[in-house]
Every structure is written in structure tokens, then in C-alpha cells.
Amino acid sequence: MLAAALASLIPDPASATGPVTVSDPVPGPPPVDVASYLVVDYDTGQILAAKDPHRALYPASTLKILTADTLIPRLDPDLEVTPKAADFAAEPDGSVVGMTAGVTYSVAELWRATFVESANDAVAELAHLSGGLAATTAAMEREARSLGARDTTNIVDADGYDQDGQTTSAYDLALFARAGLHLPAFRAYCDLKHATFPGPDGSTLSLTNHDPLVLGYPGMIGIKSGLTTTAGHTYVGAATRDGHTIIETLMLGGADISDQAADLMDWAFAADGKVAPVALLGGSPAPPTSIPTTPTPTLTPTPTPTITPTPAPKSTPPPRPVTRIEAVARPRSTTPPWSGAAWLGAVAALAAVAVPVGTRGMHRRRM
């Protein structure tokens, strides 16, 4: 034991000649407590990290990303409608903004409520304006296929509410998010921190984004979060920093999913351009030759048997608001070699002290 302690005191020979100048390698991604995730560079499509990215899971409101990809190009944002109650009927225990029959709304206002308030009643009205729910879900199916999303199955609603067999994957959600960010209107809607919405009797409702990262994470564009009993907490986000835009998708997480997403995003910004991608998102151009050292295959799904989604984690208190402070790199130690006197002092101290050896040993549906 004394010999091992003395060995730990022996200085690295390299320290005798000054500080080490070789850059530290970028560590691997942090442990993320979700069933599935994927991190991708928006511009290049390089997948930086992934965990079980093709696993079939319930999407909750993150399916609204595909709804937006499908309907934003089809509906004039300035179009106004004064709907009947039946036009915007939504699931009774889902998230709604509180639309009122006889009040006039613009399509743009419906989209703001969809992104900021995750309003299922607004989505129902958008589907009504697009020819009805059946026509909308059929169009969503076609949009998913056109984007190369092969893990998304049995689309029967436009809001992501739990439906038997209506599943997607972290991989497909990244495809939907990347396609959406190509649309200026999509990007503007998901970046909103606050919005207003027409209320009954001429009133105005004030809406605040449900996503704490949109409110506090540096460079956050936002996209969409979700929550249902079966899906647990789901999250799709994008952020931009120093010329890099990162998309991340997380599925079947707990109430701390915002913290998990922030940690993963921090790592992605540190790693982007410095690690070889594990694959390319479908339909992406080839990555720059200066980054990977070996060819990187395109990640494609493999046939798997039907998976019954895992029950959501037990509800825990909601995460605290996220505030991020940029980390500052610390220089490597330049401690000089030990003197002879220091060696003798260390030996004497170890000999005089006996060192003991220790042992170490869901809640209601919501969209």
C-alpha cells in the first residue's frame, strides 16, 4: 500500500519539461436517462450520437412536428376562420388552448397555439381546414414516406395523442425536425417564448411556451415537447451556437427530460466537428472530408418485431427552470518536479499515518 501511495507521488516525466500541449480528446456523450435518443448536425446530417434510435415508441406531441411539416405549406397563414365547436373538438383530457365557437382565428394564430401551448384543439381546427382528419393523416403518412421515415406507423390523429400502434422513433423525429427547420414559418413558430391568442368576448389570452429550454438555454430555437401517460416525456429541440445548429430527439424520459436534453446539447456543441459521426441522417449529403477519418455508413432501420412501448416512468416533481452557464476550459497543470526535500517530507508523512481502506458500497395524459 505504501509503495502504491509513493508511486502516485512520482511526477509524470512530461511535467518536468513544461505543460502538455496535446489537446484532450472529446469525451463520449453523457449518460442520458431516456429509452432512445439521437443527436444530429442540422447542416451536414452527421449523427453525432444515438441510443436505440429506431425503437418504436409513442410520440406524444412531438408528432405535431410532422403535422406542421405537412400543413404549413398547404395553409395560408393569413386565412381567417370562425369555426363551430365540432370543427375543433379534441380529446377531453388533452392539452387545449380553449378555442371558442364563433370567435375568428387566423391560421397563424392556430399555429402559435400549437407550438407554444401544444393545443390539440388548434390542431383539430388546422386538420379541419386541410380537408378533415382522414385527409390530414393520409397526407402526413405521405410526408413521412417522402422524408424517408420508415419507423412511423399507423398515423390516426394529428396531435400525437396516444393511439394503439401510432408509434415513431427518435430517428424519424430528427428527420421531421430537420425538414421543419427548412421552413421559415416553422422556425418562427417553434422559437416563440410567448404569444397571444383570441379569447371569448373580445378578450386576449397570453400564452407561455411549455419548454424551459426555449426560455433559458443559450441559442435555443426550440421545437416541441410532449407528454402522455404511455409516451412519458418526449422532446425534440434545436439550438444554434458558433455557427453550428444541433438537433436532438429524446423519447420515453422522465420529468427531468429538459435537464437531460440540456446536458446532451452541451456535449453536442463541444463534440460537433471534433468527433467522427456514427452515421448520416437519411437523405443527407456526404460529410466534409476534413472531419471523419473513415467512411461513415448511412444509418438505416432494420426490421424488428412489434415492440410494446415500455410504461412511462413514475411521475416525479417537474424539473427546475434551466439556466446554463458556459463552461470555461481550464489549463492543464504545470506543477514543477518535486525537490528532494519534498520527497523526504512525503515519505515521512506516509510512514507516520495509517491509511484505512474503505468500501463503497405517470400521471394523467397531457400533450
Explained architecture:
α2 (64-71) packs parallel to α6 (170-181). The chain has helices at residues 2-9, 64-71, 107-117, 120-129, 133-146, 170-181, 184-190, 212-216, 257-271, 340-352; strands spanning 36-41, 46-51, 80-81, 105-106, 194-198, 204-208, 224-228, 232-241, 244-253, 279-280. It is built from ten helices and ten strands. β1 and β2 (46-51) form a beta hairpin. It has a six-stranded antiparallel beta sheet, sandwiched between helices. It has one domain (34-298, 316-325): Beta-lactamase (3-Layer(aba) Sandwich), CATH 3.40.710. The termini are far apart. It is α+β, with helices and mostly antiparallel strands. The model is unreliable at 1-23 and 285-365 (pLDDT under 50).
What is the level-2 CATH architecture name?
Answer: 3-Layer(aba) Sandwich
Tell me the β content: 5-15%
- In the CATH hierarchy, what is the superfamily? DD-peptidase/beta-lactamase superfamily
Helix percent reads 25-40%
CATH class identity = Alpha Beta
Outline of the structure:
With 367 residues, the protein is an alpha+beta fold. It is 28% helix and 14% strand.
In terms of topology, how is this protein built?
Elements: H1 2-9, E1 36-41, E2 46-51, H2 64-71, E3 80-81, E4 105-106, H3 107-117, H4 120-129, H5 133-146, H6 170-181, H7 184-190, E5 194-198, E6 204-208, H8 212-216, E7 224-228, E8 232-241, E9 244-253, H9 257-271, E10 279-280, H10 340-352
Antiparallel strand pairs: 1-2, 1-9, 2-10, 3-4, 5-6, 7-8, 8-9
Helix pairs in contact: 1-10, 2-5, 2-6, 3-4
